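Quick question about two entries, pasted in order.
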Amino acid sequence: MSLKAGFAEVDITPPVGTHKIGWLKKIVSDRVLDPLFARACVLEAAGERVGIVQLDTLCIDAGDVAEIRKRISAEHGLPGGAVMVAATHNHAGPAVADSGDTRRDDAYVETLTAKVVSAVGAALTGAREAEIGFARGFRFEVGYNRRVVMRDGTVRTHGTFADPEALFIEGPVDPEVAVLAARGRDGAMLGALVNFACHAAHHGGDTSLSAGYPGVLARRMKRRSCPVTMFLLGAAGNIACADPAHEGRSKSMEEAGELLAGDVAGALEGMEFTGRVRLRWRSRLVRLPFRELAPEQLAGTVRGAQRFIDSAIYDRAMPAQIERIRRLGTETAEVQVLLVNDVAFVAIPGEYFVELGLRIKQRAHPARAVVVSCANGLLGYIPTREAFSRGGYETTFGPPSCLAAGAGELLADAAVELIAEGP
């Protein structure tokens, strides 16, 4: 089935003075290191169309996703349910949601929404006959599992082996650099989707605005004749650039982006393209349980608890968090799957642990699952069931983490079932 593909990007860099998000505490930007972008891809084959939006932001709220989809459908006729909206989880970007002591910048979010809709329109307008290919590389020297198990059986997130109590790293990494690319019938590259699992946290704690290593990747790929490179974050809830085995040292964002650009370029060199493409999309709402509101959870004294930045931030956020949990009873999460031939892009609305992403990839076989976290919403950290027994930052009840053990497995099972559904 013949394919048409379109890519576009628009600058979404906020003005200096904008509040940042991703470090729980209030941080006001005072400089721009590099621009932030919203990027869009639209694919069309046999009357079916799907779209993917990538934002250089920490997250995107489900309500904002709904508004973006609504406007895209009204202005461009693309079904909202066929659009995935994914954030790179960039910690050096603007306040697009409430987080700890930081409040959402409503004016910026409205500007962002309008720009996203225009980018999708530009991708549709510029779509042309194309061929598509899929390939992958592997990178082990950028992302590391950041959870170190101590001798007492608890976990220290961002622990290192300089600590005499450190015993082993809790889990794996996902080294796959998955690349889906489109080129015109003349052989010119139109754009690429790149999936890799590692936190984009560079410059999160300072006053700089930056797109982090995903921005470096996109700029490096422009030099390699790929005009639009969209970065889709893998299951990176417990994966970061800091290496626990080497005292927490990490690659700079430039080093990380350059390494990944080399991997993407290598994947493109050996990629086989086809113009025959089948597109499908489907989604499901999953009800997820909240954590029990036990006193030791609320006080941050449960075994293995690890509060970052300032414990008082957690205490200030607790009343509103408790009220929300009691009002809702359960959390609603959308699991979405966009299929491009046998490649299944799986949207998970949270900081998903790498073990859960790998579970989807393995159980999706023979389809190739590409897990996209922080997509279509953000429910905070989604650890494995086992991780809760050890604690660590990601399981500590507070602004970034309130779902119960088992929520991640429910999402994985839903994703696998959606991939396996018939035509």
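Here is the second entry:
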Amino acid sequence: MDDPLYRKEILRLAANAAGAGRLAHPTASATLFNPACGDRVTVDVMLADGRITALTHHTSACVLTQASAAILGADAVGLNRGEIIALAEAVQVLLAGGATPPAPFDSYVAFDGLGPHKPRHTCVLLPLRATLEALEILELSEPGA
């Protein structure tokens, strides 16, 4: 039986833990908590000219959150806030049974069987939401923003 919550690809992504850790001096950070399951993720970002130059994550979470954070940690460098928003929307579409996000984020296809497990969608989206929260905090702290 292929359990969509614990597919080998999800476990591999979580074990890979791309981007795991903390930045010494991030431009912005955000920590989000999922009270339904206890997942917690902190995302640190460095930005230059509105684009992510480094992104790390510290997760105390299930393999779904860990795997999602690893995908983001591997490929978020170079993206801006609008592109992170578009990625989060594309992942939501995938979780609802739609298309896979385009490369380099096509690894999110590992979550394509989670449609019926709606409470677990939050787990997959938590690292993306933490990234957006960090970018929003940064925008709010900039003069004239």
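Reply: The chain has a mean pLDDT of 93. The domain at 8-138 is CATH 3.90.1010.10 (Sufe protein. Chain: A). Hope that helps.
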